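Standup, Tuesday
Yesterday: got the pipeline producing structure tokens again.
Today: sanity-check two examples.
Blockers: none.

Example 1:
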Amino acid sequence: MKKINKIIAVIMSVTVVLSMANAPYTSQAAGYKLNKASLQLEIGKSVKLKVTKAGKVVAAKKITWKSSAPKVASVSVKGIVTAKKSGSATISAKVAKTTLKCTVKVTRAKATGSLTHEGYTLEQVVVLSRHNIRSPLSGGDSLLGRITPYSWFEWSSNPSELSTRGGVLETENGQYFRKWLESEGLFPENYHPKGNEVKIYSNSKQRTIATAQYFTAGLLPTANKLIDYKVEYDKMDPVFTPQLTYVTDQYTSDCISQINELYEDDIKGLKDNYELLSNVIDMKKSAAYKDKTVSDFLTDDTEYILKENAEPGMTGSLKTATSVSDALVLQYYEEEDPVKAAFGKDLSIEQWEAISEIKDVYGDVLFTAPLVAINTAHPLLEEIKEDINSEGRKFTFLCGHDSNIGSVLAALDVDDYSLPQAIEKKTPIGSKVVFSKYKDNSGNEVWSIDLVYQTVDQLREMPLLSLVNHPAIYQLSLKGLKKNADGLYSSEDFLKRLDEKIKAYDDMISTYSKAAAA
């Protein structure tokens, strides 16, 4: 009997040890605890981890955070974990002599299936669109022409102009929106808008005017609706120019500090992306590499240029790599053979995503830091408000650039996101932010904010779009605002957010003007 009891005691001891091994990684002796032992996040989502001791939160400055796989899940100095791409990572928090750990599993987000909200009546739509597929600046004597020994795709359009494929894809977009608006009862069939009911306004560049023209051909095929562009052809309209209209030395310093805090780790994380890009274009065999016009891509040579009445800019590897990344992604959409598009390399979709990530980071770095976005997005925020308040307006289409979408969404404090079924995870070619106003059965006005974009397969294969075979639709969320049970924002909350972000521009000028005068 004593022998049996001894065996039982040994088994229980082993069980306790195993249980402790599987428990959340905490140090009971030191008294430190992490609020999460494991997380499952969709790409683009964030969660804040906290370390406590005796029930009190430990100050962030006392904790060193680290991710085992920052490209899967990054962690900020404040313990904010952000899901980047599918996979697993371990987040560790070191405080004093204790290390706490949280395992993170990241999964792909799913696009919603429809812009329609049952039980609501559609009242108004404002669309902010990026132009569709354009040709890059890849001529023989250009940097792109010299940075690879290979010849780029022979485009159907002049450099920086909308391609024929881009026009077809945008006509399909217009047709999809027509079918949706007709199904909602906002447009009758073969609609001929009167007066102020429909506005089509684009930047004055060829690629934006043509995008608006093709979209309108699909949206209003019998109406002969003219495109409105307000400055001389091929000049940048100030409304669509993401420029800094107010700058001081202190503002510049604060912007750069904010950019570094938010995105320095993202830039450092591009090392593998740069290596892939260099290998795809065989950069080391190029004329530009041999004559030292370009060198190996680095992750620590970025310098920022912030000047009044100019777009935010930079020098360094990220700028050069983004030009190549952009040209390759456009070539992938346009070239029927994906192997030819990658200069003879058979790339996986994950590798195409890695190439595109370079230009996604570039866009985030230059246009989405809060201090920058409030400045660069201001004219478009005012334009959107004016269109919303325009009496009798049913539909507005504003056509600009990816930087316009990025800065507007950042200025409005949209939650971070990563788009599924796309290699461009933020502002895919031809993508559209759709602000839709509905009324419920009690007459209450509500809003939805969605990103509508064609998937990689739709961009490459060009199937006809319909309410069944529709583009991808991803509903966006505004930080700090609560949606109703149907995922919609009250009109009061949404319009208040819009007003606050427009006013934030004036507040910014006031703050920095006082600081400069002090």
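Example 2:
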Amino acid sequence: MLRFRYITKAKTSPRGKDAILIHAMPEDAAMAERIVNAILGENDGIRYACWLAEDPEKVFAEYTEPEMSEMQIYLPLITERYLETAQRYPDFKMEAVSARGLFVMPAILSPSLIPAYTARFGNIHVTVCNSSDIGEDLRKQLHSLLMDPQLKERIRRHAFTRRLFLSYRKKDRAEALKILKSIHDTKEGAAAETWYDDFLIPGRDFNNEISEAMASSEAVVLSVTPNLMEIHPDGEANYVRAHEYPDAVRTGKPVIPVEAVEVKRDEIISAFPNIPPFIRLGDQKLLEDALKNIPAEKAAEIPDDKKPYLTYLLGMAFYMGFRVEKDVARAIRYLQDAADCNVPEAAEQLFKTYKEGYEVTRDTAEALKWQIRTFEIYKDREPDEKNVRRMKQILFDEGMAGVLSLNGRVVESNEYCQDLIDAIDGIEPEDESQMIIWKAEALLNQGDIDFGNPLPNRSDEVNLQYMLQMTKEAEKCLEDYYGEEDDYYWRVSSMIQSSYSDYERKEKNLLRANQYMMVAVKRMRQSLQIWPVYENRFKMAQMLTNLSGCRYLLSFEKGQSSVMQRNYREDSVMFSNEAIKIYTQLYNERKEPSCADNLAMCYLNKSLAVSDRSEAKAMVQKGLEVIAMLENDYPGEGQGTKRKLLHAL
């Protein structure tokens, strides 16, 4: 039986993550560790679980065992030791692993091993990793392989108007990328699929793949440089001259030669019979004319109502580098055009891009702008259960309501909550119980008023009564719930208790506030036992922080014995420690500014409750370290908490 161990970002559960089996021999453990760090170290590293076999050699003999089928990607690290071991298992084939439903993605660090690899496994495409940045090529392959297959199919079928094959020498890659950009800068080539060898699928015979790609193309773009004339030491012509160009001529494919580097044209014309006139790189008019002569794959008449979604698909193609070169700046322009035409998927992608800082400068304000745009697109659609579900997810699960409130936009947050309530009331859903619990959460969020940032033109007393009213309405709403007591039910139920606790705390009824928060924490633990997702753990950390505060304040109540005071403070420290542990893990998973800010506040709260002055000072210093980390990731964030920490210091 095969046994594996997993490694994930921030030591999170592998449940629901893309499973990558890194097959490395024991002697190559250090290199395997570098690959793991490269994969998990990315912004989206949280989505992966890297698995390693306890006995790597057994994988060669037992790759048909059921445990292998739980993996999505088989990533063998091709080294001398791997090849030596593979020789002892002649029945082991990459194709057989692929046939079991795994993507096969061999990685090799030394090109000198390619002949031995080819001799053992045939012409199976292998990713050659750059030793200075071992993860770059692997990340590209992972993003392509694990891209939503339905989205890939929609892009392949609908996004492109022409299909081109780019033929070039490997050593001319920089020039080839310039040609691709020039093609996509033209009107005729803007939506052209441009296949080149970056799209070879790992684990497949590259000769067959190249032939298939050329056969499905409508024209071949030839990168013309002096390297086309090179002959290998064995006397063989290079692959472009010996195979790709002759195949293009034989199959009648139009050839567009683009002179990327000045060449001796007579030599090229002699070596490449019937080659058409050259187009110098940068001559966009001639390139436009050449592309215009290639019949478009699809009819030019696309219905106006379909164009924005096709623009979104084209943007995603450039964003992921799928069938075109990866070009995030170009992708963002297409995505913005599509979002402006009410394509919610485009607005959502822009939100994620700016939130995660994926190949753009991380920008929380820009991210929030596109998150709001996504919500508004769904809000303005004809209300149905699917659209209402997305509104709820954006507002609560993805944190839009909370971020608005934290940024002083409480009125907007409340208005969007009301939009959700109105949308819920406006439909007749199949699952009414689900809508009841969504409405309860919306009511709670309307009443969740930070009194440092209350609703305008209202006194604290009016705001406090509004909080109580919304909480009671949410509780009444939940009384009508008849569905399963799942994680979401327990989460909303705990939030009701937490809201009552906040009310009692504002009214200075600390014992009642403490009792409500104890119930809230207990119910939140039940939610976490069912589904320990990020949002539930974040909510738990908030409740633990509030409970810690209640315990600390109770230690000052009149009539307390010294023993009770000490017990309350010890409880406060205990709950702070639990919250700190959760916030630390959450920030390692996602660099969310609210998470770091709350973590720093936890250290400040703990500093108040500990009895030792030097320990209290150390807690404040830890809080300042967290704020420094936050400022590095998000300049300008956390200044209010920083002032409080400096004051305490």
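Quick observation on example 2: The chain is about 60% helix and 10% strand. The first helix runs from residue 29 to 40.
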